[in-house]
Amino acid sequence: MADASKSHVLATTLLAAGLMSLGGMAAASPCSPCSARDRKEAATRNPCAAKNPCAAKNPCAANPCAAKAPNPCAAKAIMRPAGYTPMKGDARLGERLFNDPKLSTNGMSCNTCHTGGAAYAASFAQPYPHPVQMALDNFGMAQIHLDEMVQLCMVMPMAAQPLDWQSKELAALVAYLGEVQKTFRPNPCAARNPCAAKNPCAAKNPCAAR
């Protein structure tokens, strides 16, 4: 009892001297409704305090086509091998493959970047081989063939291995893109970033205050 009295006198003295605030005492009290523990528990109970379900990493937030530095040594993986002769491909199979995310290791398909004819450079309308900025920036290639461009996209945005040069898949994709190229018209307003498609997680936060 005497100890409690002494503590009360000490606290009163410190308060009078301005060395202790009522706020400090309340924050230090484990029973305070505003204690750090209570605030944490309150946040846990708040259904909207949980992590935003739309805050998952946007697969296109980091541009997989962005060059860190030109790597001419890596160009061997996407350049036509010696003695290579292009095969005739099935454009209908190529269209299916164009939309198939199984070709990649990251869930992307060719159509992820090129939905509705988006993200083709204006030079896509020109006959191949021709200069493509992405090939120059990333692989130091001044000119590129269409089949090499397919291999570039396999290696970079889609994070996969190049297709076999004698495969029906490569021939089919080249055949399909050849058909797309015939009707392509450059869009001066098209975004340059092939990953600039609308973020599927950009919808309004369901937990945002109204």
Automatic annotation (TrEMBL):
It comes from Denitromonas iodatirespirans. Residues 1-26 form the signal peptide. Keywords: Heme, Iron, Metal-binding, Oxidoreductase, Peroxidase, Signal. GO terms for molecular function: electron transfer activity; heme binding; metal ion binding; peroxidase activity. Gene3D superfamilies: Cytochrome c-like domain. Residues 89-181 form the Cytochrome c domain. This is Cytochrome C peroxidase.
